[in-house]
Amino acid sequence: MSTTTKKNKPAKLTRKKILRSAVAMANRDGIESLSMRKLAGTLGVEAMSLYNHVTNKDDVLDGMVELVALEIELPPIDKDWKKAIRKRTISTHQVLLKYPWASALFVSRINIGPAMLHYVDTTIGYLQAAGFSYKKADYCWNMIDSFLHGFTLQELNFPFEPSEYKDVAKDFSPQLPKDQYPHLYALSAEVISGRHDGQQDFNFGLDLILDSIEKLPKK
Questions:
Q1: DSSP string, 168-181
Q2: What is the pTM of this model?
Q3: Helix, strand and coil percent figures for the chain, each rounded to 5
């Protein structure tokens, strides 16, 4: 009789388990830390065992994007396209902030998994419901997501926390002579005084874009 108990038997390796472990590793150590060898070590298996479930590292990265995309809320397509896109884009922003490495993968890979295809297809569907041609819908959704990913990456990589803005403005103000940089000087004074918190507003930018899209010719 084997002395190995069911309790000590390693858990079965699956594709989903591999991808979830890769996501956890990227969240903890950054996407640059991810390698098949390290991933296998995290799972307590030999690297070759991974290849029974994933093709290669690129397949892992694509699978990680799919897991993230599954968390995005996509309202049903109906006539209130602005409300739907607004909700979808805010949800995407919030999800991407949870996974700091994900935005770069969203924009740098083909991402043709079912979750990402559904994400894009539904987005185009919102704009089609609004009456836009496919050409105009393509322009619009790419503009929205360019703003989304750019804002997200800036928020994730900005060197100061919001709570530090006032003190940073104070420290930086000597480098802004009023006669040389009058507008930056005035803006810094607003932050120092507390009249402006210095933070950028995702919703403001999103609404600005959606309001502009609404005014566009549909064709």
A1: HHHHHGGGS-TTTS
A2: 0.88
A3: 65, 0, 35
